[in-house]
Amino acid sequence: MLLDRLGQWPLRLMNATFPATIVGKYPHPIGWLNVFDLVVGLILIAASEEIIFRRLLRNTARPYLGDGAFAVLISSLMFGAHHWWSGVGNILLATIFGILFMVMYRRSGALWPVVLAHYLVDLVAFAGIWRWF
């Protein structure tokens, strides 16, 4: 939560500096659909992105990149690039989170803690919880 909070000002600065890089924005549903999206939608996003960018990409690229820092960097850059439509600031923030998530996955050996961490980061960001602090 702290990294997300600290990452907000560089994100806004980068997006303000390069406004043409933002080609879309996240939807903001209201009512029960908002609760459903915060619970089910964010779980699906966290699980699918972690399966693709941590497990699948790591296993596929291991013969070519190894399992060291270069592999962590490449998978994190791809994770950041996946967020291209939301601006340069979000690409950089997603890349930083990608590095942290990949290191967490390599150390734990299990994907579920990374999915949970990703879900909590997204929940903080999308529910506006960081504004409370």
Distance between the termini: 10 Å
- How many strands appear in the DSSP assignment? 0
Low-confidence stretches: none
Query: What is the overall pLDDT average?
Result: 85
Helix-strand pattern: HHHHH
Give the strand content. Answer: under 5%
The number of distinct helices, counting runs of at least 4 residues, comes to 5
Shape: globular
- Biggest β-sheet, characterized? none
User: Could you say which structural class the secondary elements and strand pairing correspond to?
Assistant: mainly alpha
Estimate percent helicity. Answer: over 70%
Rg, nearest Å:
15 Å
Task: Write structural notes for this entry.
With 133 residues, the protein is mainly α. Helix content is 75%, strand content 0%. It has five helices and no strands. The protein has helices at residues 2-17, 32-65, 69-81, 88-108, 112-127. The longest helix has 34 residues, at 32-65. The radius of gyration is 15 Å and the shape is globular. The protein starts with a helix and ends in a 6-residue tail after the last helix.
Quick gist of this model?
With 133 residues, the protein is an all-alpha fold.
Label this structure with key terms:
75% helix; 0% strand; 5 helices; 133 residues; mainly alpha
Secondary structure layout:
Blueprint: H1 2-17, H2 32-65, H3 69-81, H4 88-108, H5 112-127
